Amino acid sequence: MSQEAVIAASKAYPKPAQTFQYGTAGFRMKADLLPSVVFRVGLLAALRSRYKNGQVIGVMITASHNPPADNGVKLIDPMGEMLESSWEAYGTALANAEDDQAVYDYYTHLEQKFNIKSSVTPQVIYGSDTRESSPALVQALKDALDAVGVKSQAFGAVTTPQLHYLVRCLNTEGTDHAYGKPTLEGYYSKLSTAFNHLMTNRSNGSVTVDCANGVGGPALRELQKHLNPDSITIIVTNDDTETFSKLNSQSGADYVKTNQRLPPSVTAQPLARYASLDGDADRIVYYYVDAKTSTFHLLDGDKIATLAASFIGDLVHHSGITDFSIGVVQTAYANGSSTAYIEKQGLPTVCTPTGVKHLHHAALAYDCGVYFEANGHGTVLFSPSALQRIFTHEPESPAQATAITHLKNITELINQTVGDALSDLLLVEVILAHKAWTPDLWDACYTDLPNRLEKAEVVDRNAFKTTDAERKLTHPAGLQDQIDALVGKYDQARSFVRPSGTENVVRVYAEAATRTQADELAQKVKALLR
Ligand code: G16
């Protein structure tokens, strides 16, 4: 790598007059502000790979649930997890370097700081969602990777979780903890093989999936080709990736969760199952309308977490494996009823700040850590020792043997690198089929407290600072006292305010004993921000 090569390549991507920050899920903003950021993220990915002795690092270009004009970029670490948080600050500093020379200087500063050897060939793989702006940003990334001699591989339009899967597979290939075949075919094959085993002699009718007109649509169609058609029929809707303006518009997991209503394109049949993915297919929520009043009911990330934790808990119990810890990790958005329900099952719960990187980390503390954000982003992790026990356990009865076989397949079905809407979809379908549950039976486990999520545009979202896993504000001074005073006026109420890490807004959450109270509380707290 020469100084001239980096500076010459960087010249094509001048930094706009803007301050950037690696947020909840990488850098995310209007796409036209991003070329310089993506270029510099490419440099950081190269450094990260060299720092990790040439292991493969992933770069995903996506803005997930954000509107079509936005885009974003995030890094994936070698085991398929989010970038180690201490490196986010280096990304932020590199993105904000004022000119090409400053970019080069900071790059070499990091090389020296970490004693990164130039003899190691960096390896990076990358992919993007289906946004109109993605190809140009991919080019910016490629130019950076080429400028610093990275061995790179493009995977084109992929879901975010697919790229996480590929990174882990590439870094574990040939080892005794190989994760799978490092190809998209390997991904579909791993998930579908486990699903088809778990669904042997079972059928779960049909589920209609709204793909937010994003990359999840083509991926789901491909996955479906691998599934036993006698087990499940997946009706794919909102899968127009050609009309860019349709992405996440009036559709998708974020729309359904935030508005708590059906996408306008869906006419729901009573008790039929519906699900919505987000723009890069790492989130999923379910919903249905009931038979009596055709009322909409949401089955969100909390409901998926409780379903998965109880199902896995039952399998462990029936397998004869003992001393096996299962914990559920949530965020402040988790409905109070879900937390109470999980604790009533005797399972520990932990609350972390928003962002799967935080939940993922907390879930590692258990043999089986189930983590889900209420917005439908989550997965299940099995620790290496838990996997070892599951795969070597000698069953003492046919019932134990069946439970062990199911557990083994569950560990293969779940994408353990990150929340994955396609893997989660199959997991939910398997569990409902095994329990012979219609969506109302699933929903009946506990009743959500009515809640409302609002966005507020403020002058400076960075003025909002939180503590206690984002459940309380420390700044602006005095605001938390005002929120507490309002909360005290309602029954079973809770409310918090936090700055979004993906959009230029502040989020307001409120829940209370009745719909009227939850709505009123949310509006009153929002009014405090004006
Ligand atoms: C991203 C993160 C999620 C987070 C969401 C909203 O999701 O990966 O963990 O819940 O943003 O974050 P915030 O409230 O900070 O804007 P996605 O699906 O957009 O990548």
Automatic annotation (TrEMBL):
Ligand binding (Mg(2+)): S64, D278, D280, D282
Known catalytic reactions: N-acetyl-alpha-D-glucosamine 1-phosphate = N-acetyl-D-glucosamine 6-phosphate
Residue ranges occupied by any Alpha-D-phosphohexomutase alpha/beta/alpha domain in the UniProt entry: 57-86, 120-174
Gene that specifies this protein: PCM1
Assigned keywords, A-Z: Carbohydrate metabolism, Cell wall biogenesis/degradation, Isomerase, Magnesium, Metal-binding, Phosphoprotein
PROSITE patterns registered for this protein in UniProt: PGM_PMM
Binding site for substrate: E373, A374, N375, R498, P499, S500, G501, T502, R507
Active site: S64 (phosphoserine intermediate)
Residues of the Alpha-D-phosphohexomutase C-terminal domain: 467-526
UniProt name for this protein: Phosphoacetylglucosamine mutase
Details of cofactor binding: Binds 1 Mg(2+) ion per subunit.
SUPFAM superfamilies referenced in this protein's UniProt entry, alphabetically: Phosphoglucomutase, C-terminal domain, Phosphoglucomutase, first 3 domains
Cofactor(s) this protein requires: Mg(2+)
Cell wall biogenesis/degradation recorded as keyword: yes
Occurrences of domain Phosphoacetylglucosamine mutase AMG1 (ranges): 185-285, 300-437
Gene Ontology molecular functions: magnesium ion binding; phosphoacetylglucosamine mutase activity
Catalytic activity, EC: 5.4.2.3
Function: Catalyzes the conversion of GlcNAc-6-P into GlcNAc-1-P during the synthesis of uridine diphosphate/UDP-GlcNAc, which is a biosynthetic precursor of chitin and also supplies the amino sugars for N-linked oligosaccharides of glycoproteins.
Single biological process term from Gene Ontology: UDP-N-acetylglucosamine biosynthetic process
Catalytic EC class: isomerase
Pathway participation: Nucleotide-sugar biosynthesis; UDP-N-acetyl-alpha-D-glucosamine biosynthesis; N-acetyl-alpha-D-glucosamine 1-phosphate from alpha-D-glucosamine 6-phosphate (route I): step 2/2
Similarity section: Belongs to the phosphohexose mutase family.
